[in-house]
Specification:
single chain, Alpha-Beta Plaits, 4-stranded antiparallel beta sheet, alpha+beta
Length: 117
């Protein structure tokens, strides 16, 4: 689909699965915000292990019930939409790392958009 191709920004938000916003998991709040703002999509990746800003290693352990593991939220969108999203989300992220970088989307296929130019 042509509207998704070309120069875009990739937003990456590094947080913990324990981070919350208004009583719900932060990653869910950020996904809801992305949907509300009409972003093309967002993906949450759960890390196996990570070393955070506090120099603590967080990793998955099958024997521990409550796990603190890193999460990565990635969004690819037009620069203006990323900027608007960040403005709306900045108060939600109390601890974490946020990065952006330029990317080129060279291919995008989805059955919903077959035949569109």
């Amino acid at each position: 689909m042509q509207r998704y191709l070309g120069k875009r920004k990739e937003l990456k938000i590094y947080i913990s699965n324990e981070d919350t916003y208004e009583g719900k998991p932060l990653f869910e709040a950020l996904l809801s915000l992305a949907k509300e703002m009409g972003l093309a999509g967002a993906t949450v990746f759960k890390g196996v292990a990570g070393l955070g800003a506090h120099s603590e290693i967080h990793s998955f352990n099958v024997w521990v019930l409550k796990q603190k593991v890193p999460l990565l939220i990635t969004i690819i969108e037009k620069e203006e939409k990323i900027a608007d999203f960040l403005e709306a989300a900045k108060e939600m992220i109390k601890e974490g790392l946020v990065t952006t970088h330029d990317i080129d989307v060279v291919l995008y296929h989805h059955p919903k958009f077959e035949g569109e130019a």
